[in-house]
Every structure is written in structure tokens, then in C-alpha cells.
Amino acid sequence: MTQFRMFGDVPLSRASFSSKMIVSLFLLSLLMAYGVGILNIWDKTGFTSQTKIWRYRGAEATADQANEAAELYFPRSRSELIELTHDHTFDMAMLLLMVGHLFQLTSFTERFKQVVWLASFGAMFLFIWSPWVIKYVSPAGAILLIAGEILLTLSFLTLTVVPLYEMWFVRPLPRPRRTRTE
Q1: 16 domain residue, yes or no
Q2: 134, 105 contact by CB (below 8 A)
Q3: Shortest CA distance to 127 belongs to which of 43, 69, 72, 52?
Q4: What is the rounded CA–CA span in Å between residue 91 and residue 75?
Q5: Closest by alpha carbon to 19, among 164, 175, 170, 160?
Q6: Residue 129 lies in a domain
């Protein structure tokens, strides 16, 4: 994988102050945006499987359910699910690509990086496709959505916090000296 031009073959810990600053501001902005996204999820569905089911299938008013739940949760149409899927697929894929490139510049092993990338994109697929499962297959798909949210959050934190840590808190190893024969 080619690395960002602003870093070349330089690990994050050796990047210039200016490079560290712009990348840090970018990552901190993404963390803030992700936090607002979690707040949005909490605001719309809480963190319960029942409210996630209501969000995509709608809430049927019964004696056990509050009337307000039936008023707030209308079934999502196929068109709304297509729009949601389209927007999130592009946005999340680009986001994971960008932070994945920065994560590539960390000192972790290639195997660990590959596991984190696979987990990130796997979580993205769970998060994006589980509303379809909830709506058209089974309400039990809400468990997939919650699993996707948790795994995506853990992956995203890894992809953003690790580069921040390595840029500012890891002491770079001395550069190897080149001999005249190289």
C-alpha cells in the first residue's frame, strides 16, 4: 500500500509538527462527528433492540406500548432504506479508507492492521444491511445492528486513537545510518 505523500516512508512518530497538527485536527474532528452520530442514534432509538425494531418496522400500538411510541415510529419505506443504505455506504467506506491509510502508518504488525480493517468493514456491512434484515426478514436483526454499532465504534476508535497516540506519544527510533556502500 502506498503511503500518504506528506509522510513518505516516515512513521507517524517522525512526521513534522505541521503534518501531525493537520492530521490530528482531522482525526479529532472525525471523533467529534462520530460522537454526534452516536448521539443521533441514541436520540432516535436509544440503545435498545426494541426501539431499533420500531424504527425500521414501525410500532404497533398495543396495551403494553406507550401511544407515543406508535406515533413516533412509522415503518421505513423501501425508498427510505435505499437512500439510507446509499448514503451510508459511500460515506462510511470513504471514512474507513481515510483513517485506514493513517492507521497503516502505525507501528503495529501488518496482521493486526488487516484484522482491524476487516473488522471495520465487516462492522460497516452489519450496520448498513441490518435495517433491511429487521424490516424484511426478522426483528431479531436488531441484534446484528447493535453488534455492528459496537464493532464499528471499537474499530473506529482504534483507527483514530492509535495514530493520534503514535504521533504525539511514541518516541521515534533513531534513523539507521547509511553507509557509503548503500
Answers
A1: no
A2: no
A3: 52
A4: 24
A5: 164
A6: yes
Q: Which long-range contacts (CB under 8 A, 24 or more apart) does 2-6 make?
A: 3/101, 3/104, 3/105, 4/101, 4/102, 4/105
Total domains in the chain come to 1
Domain that holds residue 38: 27-169
> CB of 152 within 8 A of CB of 120?
yes
Residue range 89-116, pLDDT digits in tens = 999 999 999 999 999 999 899 999 999 9
| pLDDT given at position 42 | 87
Quick one: average pLDDT of 50-62?
80
C-alpha cell belonging to residue 160:
483514530
Query: What's the rounded Cα separation, in Å, for the pair 13 and 166?
Result: 6
Q: For residue 153, give the 3-state DSSP assignment.
A: helix
Locate the DSSP E strands across the chain: none
Answer whether residue 48 shows pLDDT above 70. yes
Residues 155/120, Cβ–Cβ less than 8 Å: yes
Rg (CA), the chain: 21
| pLDDT greater than 70 at residue 176 | no
Domain membership of residue 35 (yes or no) is yes
